[in-house]
Amino acid sequence: MRRQRMPTREQNKELVRRFIDEVFNKKNLDYAMEAISDDFVEHQVLPGMTPDKKGTMEQFRVLLEASPDMKAEIHELIASGDRVAIRGTYSGTDSGGFMPGMTPTNKPYSMEGIDIVRWGDDGRILEHWGILDVMGAMTQLGLIPAPGS
Amino acid sequence: MGVAENIDVVRRIEGAHNMADYDAVRSLVAVDFTPHTPGSQMLPPGVEGAIAANEAGRESFPDKRSEILDIFGEGDKVVAHVRMTGTNTGGIAWAGVPANGGAIDIDWIQISRHADDGRVVETWAQMDTPKLLMQSGMQMPM
User: Fold this and answer.
1) How far is B132 from B56, CA to CA, in rounded Å?
2) What digits encode the pLDDT tens for the residues A84-132?
3) A148: in domain
4) Which residues in chain B are closer than 8 Å to A147, comparing Cβ atoms?
5) Residue among A78, A82, A98, A111 with most chain B CBs within 10 A, to mutate
6) What domain count does chain A have?
7) Residue B141: which pLDDT band, with cuts at 50, 70 and 90?
8) Which of A93, A120, A148, B43 has its CA 20 to 30 A from that of A34?
9) CA-to-CA distance for A84 and A11, rounded, in angstroms?
10) Inter-chain contact A9–B77, Cβ cutoff 8 Å?
C-alpha cells in the first residue's frame, strides 16, 4: 500500500480549526510558537511588525492584549493542495486600543475576515495572507463614519 | 461542473471585468447572485450590482487591472486571491476622496459559490479597503 506523505485537505482543515481555537479562543500562544514554521512568511503585516514568525507572534500578543475577550468563529474552510482558506468572524471588546497607539473605546466589535494559510509537509504553517473587515470594525467602534454617510 | 471548470469561470469573470465586457459577465454570473461583501448593500441587486461596482472602480481608477495571484477550489466553492492596480485619477465618490494621481496596489480575497452550470451564485469577499483609501490620499486614523 502506498503511503500518503502529503497531509490531506481534511488534515489541513483540522489543523486550522485547532490553531484558531487554541490561539484566538484559548489565547495559547505557546501553541502558535509550535504550529508556525521558523521559515514562516506573513503577507499581512501590521505597521511596525516584521513579516516573519517573530512579527506574527508579536501581532498575536498585541491583538489578544487589546481584546482579551476575543472569540473566533469559523464559518467555512475551503482546502486544496497545501492551502486552506478560512472565512471567519473575530469578536471582542476594544479594551486596549483597536490598533497600537489608539485610545480604547471599550465598545464591542465583530470583524469578518478571509484568510489563506499554506501548510508545510511537517504540519506547520509556512505562509499567511489575510484581509479583515477593518473598516467595518472601526465603524462599529465609532472610529470612522459609516461609508456613504 | 467540477472545480477546474469553476476556477475557469472565475478567471473569465476577472478578465471580462478588466475588458468591461459585461455581456460576458452576465453569462458567467447568475442574474440574482448574492454578494456578501462590505459595501454591497449600496449597490443594485444581482449581477448588475457587480457590474456597477466594476464601473465605479473604473471611474476612480480608469487604468484599473486585476490579476489573480492564487486560485483554488473545493466542492462548489472557489477561492481567488486577487491583486488590483491602477491610478486614482477619478476620485472615490462613496468615500469623498478626490483624485490625487496616487498609485493603487491592493489585494482582495474572494470566495465564490457556483451553480451546477458553473455560474457564480454567491460571493464573500474582503478587500484591503484601508490601504486603498490611504493610497488614494485619504487620512485614516491608523
Assistant:
1) 14
2) 999 999 999 999 998 888 899 999 999 999 999 999 988 999 999 999 9
3) no
4) 38-39, 42, 94-95
5) A78
6) 1
7) low
8) A93
9) 10
10) no
Predicted model pTM: 0.93
Beta strand residue intervals within chain A, DSSP E? 36-42, 71-80, 83-93, 108-119, 125-132
Q: Read off the DSSP letter of residue B97.
A: B
Contact B21, B33 (CB under 8 A): no
**Secondary structure of residue B67 in the 3-state scheme:** strand
Residues of A in contact with B127 (CB under 8 A): 131
Q: Are A45 and A51 in contact (CB under 8 A)?
A: yes
pLDDT at A8 over 70: yes
pLDDT of residue A47: 79
Q: What mean pLDDT is predicted for residues B50-79? A: 96
Residues 6+ apart with CB under 8 A from A67: A92, A93, A94, A95, A96
> Across the interface, which of A83, A131, A135 has its CB nearest the CB of B72?
A83
B108 chain-A contacts, CB cut-off 8 A? 131
CA distance B110 to B125: 4
Calculate the average pLDDT of chain B. Answer: 94
Spell out the domain ranges in chain B. Answer: 3-135
**In this complex, do A116 and B74 lie within 8 Å of one another by their Cβ atoms?**
no
CATH number of the domain to which A41 belongs: 3.10.450.50
Global ipTM: 0.93
